[in-house]
Amino acid sequence: MVSRTTDDYQAICLAGCAAVCEPAFWAGFDRGTPESFYNYFLQLTEYEPARAAKFGLPHYTWLCINPKEAEDPKLAEEVISFIPEFINKPNVLGIGEIGLNKNSRNELKVLEWHIDLAARHNQLILVHTPHLEDKLKGTKLIIDALKSHPKIKPERVIIDHVEEHTVGIVKDAGFWAGMTLYPESKCTPARAIDILEVWGTDQIWMNSACDWGVSVPLAVPKTALEGRARGHSAAWIDKVVYQNPAKFMRQCKKFKLPAV
Predict the structure, then answer these.
(1) What is the CATH number of the domain that holds 237?
(2) Number of domains in the chain
(3) In this structure, how many other beta carbons lie within 10 angstroms of the beta carbon of residue 115?
(4) Which residues contact 167 (CB under 8 A, 6 or more apart)?
(5) What is the pTM of this model?
């Protein structure tokens, strides 16, 4: 939401959004100093929760150095070193979105550092998988890295941006699967419902992309409408858009939803 206007907060409130869960992500340009990340984490843990509260929305976040900016291990190491200062903030759910972008050695090294950080501090993990032709290879590398750490529990990890060719290996390995909804890339509402119809509704959720590119904060409610148009029940839709993400994030005791 740091990339969105307050009009978007109004729109998602009108659509029935109960809370915002915002990962640390690429800012549309590569940040070059540790100080820029430190200020970004302050924005995610202090300013943005206050802005969301004006609309009655709880705001939660995740912290990391995004895979797009993980090619510089020295910078990444410095950024990771001060993440523990923020972990106990009341709106921090865990470490994310970590992962791979181009499947490089440096990215994999930084991913392993993040995994170890999450394990040492008993944090939930949110994972970014690469785009297009690198997705399958990257997803397999990520699963291997997660399984290589003895303290990581798959049920406390969500691997995001799954598509038709990766959702199966993620769920079969015991991890949660996330579908990121975009109007032009990743999953459209129709593709997301297709995936749910094939793979079922257990350990999977959908999330609206809200970033600096073409994206739609209302993508999840629009996908709910797609499910309803195909004849799926209100309970089926509610499980995917509300109950599943709530179940995963309630593994962090700080996550609370307002009473309906």
Answers:
(1) 3.20.20.140
(2) 1
(3) 22
(4) 177, 179, 195, 199, 204
(5) 0.96
For residue 175, what are the contacts with CB-CB under 8 A and spacing of at least 6?
Answer: 143, 146, 154, 155, 157, 158, 159, 203
H/E stretch holding 194 reads: helix 189-199
Domain presence at residue 84: yes
CA dist 47 and 44 (Å) reads 6
The backbone torsions φ and ψ at residue 198, rounded to the nearest 5 degrees and listed phi first, read: -85, -45
77 falls within a domain: yes
- For residue 61, the cross-strand partners are 22, 92
- Distance, first Cα to last Cα, the chain: 23
Structural domain of 70: 6-249
- Report the pLDDT value the prediction gives residue 259, as an integer from 0 to 100: 74
- Could you list the mean pLDDT of each consecutive 10-residue stretch along the chain, which spans 260 residues? 90 93 91 95 97 95 95 96 98 97 96 98 97 91 98 98 96 97 82 97 93 86 96 97 97 89
Token look-up 């990520």 returns 142
CA-CA distance, 171 to 152, in Å (whole number)?
A: 15
Give the C-alpha separation, 192 to 188, whole Å.
Answer: 6
Give the pLDDT confidence score for residue 157 in this predicted structure: 98
Q: Are 115 and 149 in contact (CB under 8 A)?
A: yes
Instruction: Indicate whether 256 belongs to any domain.
Output: no
pLDDT at 260: 60
In a domain, 207, yes or no: yes
Cα separation, 252 vs 157, in Å, equals: 12
